[in-house]
Each structure stands twice: as structure tokens, then as C-alpha cells.
Amino acid sequence: MSIPIFSSRPPEQRKTRAVGIDLGTTNSLVAVVAEDGQPKILLGDDGQALVPSVIGFEVDGQLDVVGAEADDHLAERPDRTIYSVKRMMGRSADEVVSELGMLPYRVHRDDQSAAVRIQVGDRRYTPPELSAFVLRELKHRAEKQLGQVVDRAVITVPAYFNDAQRQATKDAGRLAGLEVLRIVNEPTAAALAYGLDRRPEGRIAVYDLGGGTFDVSILHMHAGLTEVLATSGDTHLGGDDIDQLMVASVADQIESAGLQVRGHLDRVQRLRKAMIQLKIALSSQESAAVKVELGGPLPLELAWDRADFEALIAPLVERTLGPCRQALRDAGLQPTDLDEVILVGGSTRIPLVRRKVQELFGRVPQSGIDPDQVVALGAAVQADIMTTGRRDMLLLDVTPLSLGIETVGGVVTKLIQRNSPIPASATDEFTTSVDNQTGVVLHVLQGERELVKDCRSLARFVIPVAPLPAGLPRVGVTFLIDANGILHVTGRDVRTGQEKTIEVKPSYGLCDEEVVRMLTEAYDHAEDDWAARQFIEARTEAEQVVAATEHTLAGPAGTRIDDEERDEIQSRIGSLRAAIGTRQIDPVREALSRLNDVTLHLAELALASTLNDVVHDAKLAGRIENDAPEAAERLKHGHHRPGVMGH
Amino acid sequence: MAYSDKVLDHYNQPRNVGSLSKDDPNVGTGVVGAPECGDVMKLQIKVNAQGVIEDARFKTFGCGSAIASSSLATEWVKGKTVAEAATLRNTDIVQELNLPPIKIHCSVLAEDAIRAALADYKAKQDAATKSEV
Amino acid sequence: MAILNDSAVEPGTPPAESPPPFVVDSDGKVDLDRWSGPGEPPPDAFTVLGLPRRLLLDPKHLDLRFRSLIRDLHPDRFHVSGPDAVRKAERHSSLANDAYRALRDFERRVRLLLELEGHAVDEKFRPSPALLGQVLEINEALDALQEALADGAPAAAAAARGEIAATGRELGDARQALSDRLYDAARRWDAAQAPDAAADLASLARRDLRAALGEASYLDNLLARVQAALLPTQAPTPTQS
To answer: Contact at 8 Å (CB) between A361 and A408?
Structure first.
């Protein structure tokens, strides 16, 4: 039996949606699995799939605009238009310094943590805060498209990202008001998208050359199970580097002709944009030319042959082959063992890249799904797997880097080897070397090299122990790498069995207090978000009430009200629709409540008519003669006032 | 785990690296290896007429602790008599360098290398004495 | 590393004479309270996957067991059930992952099984003087190569590479012979597990396994360095950035 009361969906069903986000160096995308089970990219108002990962600020350092519009201002506002944030995520300022040469904005080193801060006006931002601006833009885009609140996301990262970089990405998600369901590796996400699309079986290599990073993964796909066998890469190799090479080469020529480029931020940016145009053109043409206005007497025309371009970038492309061989070795496979090679990332459109990949793997690489979109699509699939409980697909990933601890001589003793399937764990026992020591210091490192100085310091922490003679305390430490590739540590006093979770402060990351502080600082935005979310909820309810009212008006109950009542209801439906158009929550609530006031009678009629049907049916069946009126009474005056919204 | 300056010192600037002539009858050579980590250690001593070790050299391929252990071992045996050198124990090295349990085998290796070198020297001396007789 | 060959296996066929995996209860359901965490010693890899303690496992069976288990255990399956279930699933799936990693490589499996039986690899094993001589030689050649590369002396580098390659070939042959010895000893050990097998067969096989393993790991370390030195294009080892 169905009762046409004006209710919305059952409350236990979540009204919010989970999306997949490809947070890229150059561009970002958001996707969702639609009702038909297929992932699709959510487009912006401009009909574009890509959101440039560019953030524009006001002169005083307040956020202005994110995406394409910010990208358009790159040349005019080079010092307050931030791009390539991803390359700074989870890294120290010193590491980033090597890239400073061509960055037009100001990068600072935080004295306390050695972490990167980007200064705009008088404000300083951390990389996660900046990424959060991009994520928030994607969240808004998705909410607008879906008409639903989006509060959970799967976010992708390069497979070769270390713990600190993953943690920073997770922090960015939190700062953007998203529950990060999972951090997924980009090549693996791509494989998931292919997995859903074509259900390939066997061994697959994914070659992912993005804007700023290079990854290669070897996977085994079997009956919906996507198992990563090995992964390798370079977190500092991508399209950005190609652009920089081109700019540097052209800048040399221009400067030798007497026009200074370096040091003129706007000229560098104009040149960079022109070079990107040229690069894209050279993927489909043998030669191309662009005009660029650098403030000289005439616009400069730059003409390149593909051969020049290829000669310039060949060393970069060559650098991707080492990690490919390494991944194959780690997977214990020969190129001939592979069933397919998949290309991911915009830079794989470059013909030289395709040729080199084909040479190395001995087969023509595939790019059936748009290489710019495939990662976001796969992330949406993973979000779907995690929120719907679907069981036909599962992703088994590996940790890209070995995890170890520092031992005497500055040597790293490995506890978890690279390419171990995750979650993975290791337990080790430690003791003291001096009498009455009150703690044992553990230095956790990630990387493949033997010496501490060559590995990435993840964390240093002290495990407290009761003061005892040297060698007597026994501390068991368990390292767990979760499915996101992020480390958790628990320590246990072996003698007492007492367990404690050790807080791991990522070396260049944000600690919890910092995230909380930033969340508080971002309270204004949070309020915006909250308002938007409230509005979306109210609108959804309003739309459902309108639909239900109209449905009832057209049904048997509708014939039992007079024209005046009918006109009043319809006029108030009109007002409610107009209120929805204002995108303001208060008018919607107001109009909704006014509509509810005049539909009570209609709702009662509808209920009565339904109950009559029920009673009639029951009588026919010779049952529940006495229960029915009571039930009708209960429904009429019961807790469930039809048509009234919850707020 | 704080390192004593000694470890870092030996690790960064190992003493007595090099080789002595293997065929010199006054030189004892010990080559040992640790299967656990693939380390290999060659330790040589040169003994003078008074039975005092006047020079010691080593060549170690392995981790920092192994290098530090063998470097320390050569420093210690220099100036000692053959009999004194034979009393050197790996635990002395562990104590001096403050080695963690996971690296104790490095000190064992150094002890073994000294013993092997002493044994080689004795064997050469015995052979020489025999041929003299 | 052993190469898996599982393309012919259909999901759902359990290995013939295996017990159920550790985390599966008597009703065939996954029990996430089976292991309480690091405070309690974790079950061994064979127990986790529900496989008999044998050295020569059918890789197809191993893959099958692991995959069906991880399909049920992976934390992604439990996100809808809340953070507590996810944590338990993380713990239990790390058990399964670690067990799979330990068993799918033949030599790691031998090492593990010996440890379980209370016979760790012989710590006292000392390489023969002849082998140690080769090891020193190769290490010296590796050093010479590095020096030559640093000084930009191609002729000296080529000479050093030649020396490394020659010794490397000898070591490679020795390693192959060791693998054969290991497989042979493993077969004998498995056979000795039969109830009617003579007791000394097992201990004999075990002694051979321990000796061969000790030598094998020694040679592997060496061969890895040889390989790295001889790579055609000096492929950089993946570094942290």
C-alpha cells in the first residue's frame, strides 16, 4: 500500500553525494557515478570538464577566483595568481627551492617547520590551504550540477607520492569541507575506469605522465579485482617541466636579441602560455607558430618544428623509462608478459612519448578513455564502491616506497618493503641504550636508499618508557600503512601490555591543531558552505513537496476541493518556485510553509481516500473490520503531519 | 637512538683503510663475511719481532656499523701484542659504539676478522719456523 | 621473485586439502574480532590464508585463497559500516596481505617455514674463503668502477665493468645451482611430512635448506649490486623527493 503523503525520501538514505576528484598539477576534475552506474565528468557552467588548478587572489591576499578565470589573469597578476601547488604539497621549502627559478609568486620557508608558505599580499598560505581552494571549487561545481550536497570525496594522488604528500592532500580535503573517503593512486584510478568500461583481464601497465608528476604502475586485473603489482615514478617530472624547458630555450634566444625576459614576471607568464599553445599544436602538427606580445615593438612570432621540440624534450621523456623498467622488474615481469599498456595524463598526447612507450613495452599503447578525464572517472568509481557497498569491484593497491627506521650510523633499516600490498603492517621491538632513559626516539623514514640522508624523513617521535637499566625496557612498535598509503603507529610496553597510539607528526605537514586552526579561520567559508548546503536541502524538499502536491491535485482528492482552494494552492506553488529561483533559503522556507498551510485539507482528503480504499479492500477480503477506522484516525491526527517540512 | 660521536666519527672518517702485502710473512690476513647482510670485511695485521702489532689495515664493504666496527678494531689492536689482541671481544665494540641489537653482528664480524687475521699470522709463522728447522 | 600464473583459475575453487582461513569462522563468515591486534601474536602466514604447511605450494591455490579472502576483508568493504569496522578490517587485511607477500615468493616461504618450525636460517653460516675472495674482488671492481666514472676515465670504467661482469657470471651460475638445491631440498622436506616418513629425512632436508638459504641471500645482495653496476643506461634508483 502506498500513501500519497507529501514526504521526501526516507531519512535513512543519505541525501549527500560522494564524488571522485582528480586534483591535478595543471588541471583538476570532478566526476560522479550516475544512476546508470557509469562514471561521468561534472562540467562547469562554461561546459568545460577541466578546472585549471589556478587560484587568483586580491591584492590584499583574499581569495578572488579559482579556475579558468584565475588562469586568464596569470600574465597580468603573476604575483597573486598561484599555480602548480601540487608540486609543493607535503614538501619542505628547501626541496621546492630548486623550482623557484620560474615561479612568479613568493615562496617562503616557515622558520619553525621548514615547510612551504606562499605569500600573497600580507597573507601566507600553506599548500594544503591553496589546494583546498581548488577542491572547494570542484565541490561547488558538483553541488550545482547534482543539486545535492557533496561532502565526501575520493581524491587521487600520484602513485609515487610519499606519506607527507598524501597527508597534505587529505588535509586539503578536510579544509575544503570534504570527508576524504580514500586517497587513491592516479594510475590505479585510471585502471579502475578502464576496468568498469571494458573489463580487461590480465596484466596491464599504466603510463601516467601528468602536469607535474610521472607514474607507472603494473597491475593485474581479474574478475573485478584490480591488483597493483608494482609501481614506480618520479614526483618531479611532467608537462610543467616541458613548458619550463621550452620557456628557458626561447628566453635564451630572446634575451640574446636584447629583450630581457627573466625577472619580468608578466613576460615569463606570457611566454609560458604561448609555449603551452605551441606544445599542444605540435602534438597534431609537424610545425606550428605562435605570436606572443612581450612589450617589444612588435609581437614576437615563434615557429617550431616538431623535430626541434622532440630534440628538446627527449631527455625528459627518456627519464620516464627508468621507472618503467624498475616497475617491471619489481613485478617480476617482462614487457612481453603484458596484455595492455594504457596512457594517462595530458602529456601522453605528445607523439614522442607514445613512440618511446611503444618501443619500451613492445606494443601500441591504448588511450580509449580521454587521458585527461580517466583518473577522475576512476576516482568516482572508487567513491561509488566505498559508499554503495557494491562488491563486484575492488582495488588492491601497494605502497610505492619502503618504510624504515633509522639505526646506528645513519642507516635505514627497512620494515615494510616497497610494493607491499596495503594495508600492510610491521612490528618491531626496541629498547634503551642508557640507564633510566625515559623514552626511545624513533625516526621513521620512507625511501629506497640505504642512508638516512637519502630518504624522506616522515616523522620523529618519542616512545615513553618507564626508567629502567639500559636494555631492560621492551617497546613493541607496530607500523600500519592504511589503504590510503598513510602511516599509523602504535606503541606497546611489552612488559605491561599497555598500548598507546603514537601521534605521527608529518615532517613538513600540518599537525591536527593547525588543521583545526585553519578550519576555524576558514569559518567564513564554512558558513557559506553551510548556507549553500541548507539551501540545497530546502530546495530539494520544496521540489518534492511541489511534485507531490501537483500529483495529488491531479488525483481523486483533487476533485473534492473547490476552485478557490485549488487556485490558492497553485498560486502558492508558483510563489515557492519563484522563491527557489532567488537561491535564498529564507524565502524558500517561508513560501514552503505558506504552501503547507493551504494543503492540509488536500492532504487529509488524500489520506482519507487512500484509507477508504484500504478499508474497502479489507472488507472485500473479509478482514480487519474493526481495525481500519482506528488506523484512519491514527493517520489523520498522528505524528505525521502531512506536508510539513522538518526545519 | 642518539649516536655517540665515535660512531659517526669512525663512519665518516674510517681509520686505517687499505691493504698490507698479503705475502709478507709478518702480515696476517683475515677475510670474513656476514650472510645476513652481505657484508665482507678484510682485516690485516702486521706484527713486529717483539710480537707487537705495529700496523693494521682493513677494507670493509658493508653498512656503516660494519665500517665503524672494523675501523675501531684496527685502532684497538695497533700497539697490542698478539696475545692481547686475541682477548678483544665483540661486546667491547658494542659498548664503545653503542650498537643496537640489530647491528651486533657487525661487531661479531670484526671480532671474527681479528681472529682470522691472527690465525693466518700464526699459520705463517708456524710454517716459517718449520721450514727453518 | 616468483611469477604468478593464475589466468586459468576460476574464482571460488578452494585448494583441496586446506583448512579454512584464520579469519573465517565456522559458518564461513569473516570474523573481524578474530585477532585483537599487535598485543596478541599474529597467526602465521599459512594459518592466515588457510594453507597446509608445505614448501611447494600451487601458486594458483595461493592466489585464489588470497583473492577470495581479501575481497571479504578489504577495508573499502567496511566504509559503510563505520570507522571501527574499517580499523578492524585494516588490521585483518594487513594480516592477509602480509601473509600473501610472505608466501608467494618461494625462498621467503622456505625462510618463514623454517622459522615457524623453530629453525631459523643458520646465523653461523660463514661463506667459504673462495667465495669471500670473489666477493672482495667484485667489491673492489665496483669501487674501481665508481672511481673511474667519477674521474671520467672511460677505459678504466670499461675494464672494471668487464671484471665485474666476469665475476658476476660465475656468481650467477652459483646462484642458479643454489636454487636447484633449494627446490630439491624443499621437495624432500615436503615428502618427509608424510606420517610414515622417516624422521631423519626431514632433518636432513632442513639442514640443506638452511645452508642453501644462507648462501642464497649472500649471493643475492652481491648480484643486485653487480646488476646495478652493469645496467646499460645507468637507470637511477628511485629516489625520494
So the answer is: no
